[in-house]
Design brief:
Elements (H helix, E strand, L loop, with lengths): L8 E4 L5 E2 L3 H25 L1 H7 L19 E2 L3 E4 L12 E4 L8 H9 L8 E7 L24 H10 L3 E7 L4 H6 L28 H17 L3 E5 L8 H6 L10 H16 L4 E7 H5 L15 E7 H5 L2 E2 L4 E2 L5 H16 L3 E7 L5 H7 L11 E3 L1
Parallel strand pairs: 5-6, 5-14, 6-7, 7-8, 8-9, 9-10, 10-13, 13-14
Antiparallel strand pairs: 1-4, 2-3, 11-12
Helix pairs in contact: 2-8, 3-4, 6-8
Length: about 400
């Protein structure tokens, strides 16, 4: 899809902008993938064997080869980079939704008020944050590990009834691995230091759940089964990411966490959740933030390894306004919301090329009407799939 030409646009960063692969880069990346596929497949299976075994269907033959992520080959653009007719060649999707907030999920009254504020002509689905970043659960779950995290009196029956009465379809959003509550209650669900069993915590003193823990995988799979059995038609899995490990962290943790093929653990976990979702007749999408892509944290976006080809790209306009740094490059976003969205899509489009992509526009400082207005930027790319909120 080509963006309509609005004239020359100059993008500036404090250092340098990175764009997609050149044709030569793509050729070399493909060649490296062929050469490395056998060795990485064997190594990846050894490192992620419990996860692969868990997700393998009965009667399946053991895999003899496993594709791997492409080698990183990026071309540098000078400090003043010109973008005249940038393309966003990701595949078409027609999913439209409005996203509610955790504060809307406290009781029937707050949910009903939030639904009344969503214009009927803007969305087919309503996304409900039922397991949020940090680990809180916003419905009365019966899953064992969820009991210490429940923050709402709503039942799934209440939620489905209110959604249907409002004329929308239900979609559930669950944060998969950015979970501090489960890993504190069940330490085997989190990252453990390799020298003695102490639990790893991030710079804020928070533990995370890990895709290498069977208990963590079971917990999230049981949440998905509970939601789809209740009638949710769409499951959106966010936070399929690793924490921001420092070099000193990696020296204390399992060596696999510093290796390129650690993506296999994330994609295997995503495939497990996909199987749980479709077995109950629902659809699954993976939400990834533009911030994580720009920071190089989009390990899960491996089209050859993922069962689900449906992606939601979350563009948080507040975070764009503050600039995003990957440690080497600072990406600055100035101008109108439309200009920020356009620049962001130009920068991340290479990661979306093999997926059915919807764009989520979010930001705590923006109200619903402002986000709907910003959505007009997507029409320049022919993108008909979006989430507002």
């Amino acid at each position: 899809m080509k963006r309509r030409n609005k004239g020359r646009k100059i993008y500036k960063t404090k250092e340098k902008n990175y764009y997609g692969k050149s044709p030569f880069g793509k050729f070399m990346s493909g060649a490296l993938t062929v050469l490395l596929i056998g060795g990485i497949g064997f190594l990846g299976y050894s490192l992620a064997e419990p996860i692969v075994n868990y997700t393998q269907h009965k009667g399946d033959e053991p895999a003899t080869e496993a594709p791997t992520t492409e080698a990183a080959m990026i071309s540098e653009i000078p400090t003043e980079a010109i973008s005249e007719e940038a393309t966003v060649p990701f595949k078409e999707s027609f999913y439209t939704a409005a996203a509610l907030k955790a504060s809307d999920m406290m009781n029937v009254g707050s949910l009903r008020s939030a639904l009344a504020a969503v214009p009927q002509n803007e969305a087919e689905y309503v996304e409900l944050p039922l397991k949020v970043s940090g680990g809180n659960i916003y419905y009365a779950s019966s899953v064992l590990e969820a009991q210490t995290a429940i923050k709402s009196e709503l039942t799934l029956h209440d939620i489905i009834k209110e959604i249907e009465n409002s004329g929308f379809k239900p979609a559930a959003v669950i944060s998969v691995f950015r979970d501090n509550i489960m890993s504190e209650a069940y330490p085997e669900g989190g990252y453990v230091l390799s020298d003695g069993g102490a639990q790893w915590t991030d710079s804020n003193g928070k533990s995370w759940t890990t895709p290498y823990s069977q208990r963590t995988l079971d917990y999230n799979a049981n949440i998905v089964s509970e939601l789809t059995s209740a009638g949710f038609e769409q499951i959106i899995c966010s936070d399929l990411v690793f924490p921001d490990f420092t070099e000193s962290d990696l020296q204390l943790l399992d060596p696999v966490l510093g290796q390129n093929d650690r993506c296999i653990a994330l994609t295997s976990a995503a495939n497990l959740l996909y199987d749980k979702t479709v077995s109950n007749g629902a659809s699954m999408q993976i939400e990834i933030s533009a911030e994580d892509i720009l920071k190089g944290k989009a390990d899960v976006l491996q089209p050859m390894l993922l069962s689900s080809g449906n992606i939601i790209l979350n563009i948080d306009l507040d975070k764009l306004s503050g600039g995003i740094s990957d440690g080497n490059t600072v990406y600055e976003f100035s101008g109108t919301n439309t200009e920020k969205i356009e620049k962001c899509l130009d920068l991340v489009n290479d990661k979306l090329v093999d997926f059915n992509a919807a764009i989520r526009l979010s930001g705590e400082s923006l109200n619903y009407d402002e986000l709907v207005e910003a959505k007009k930027a997507l029409s320049d790319y022919g993108c008909k799939a979006y989430v507002i909120g």
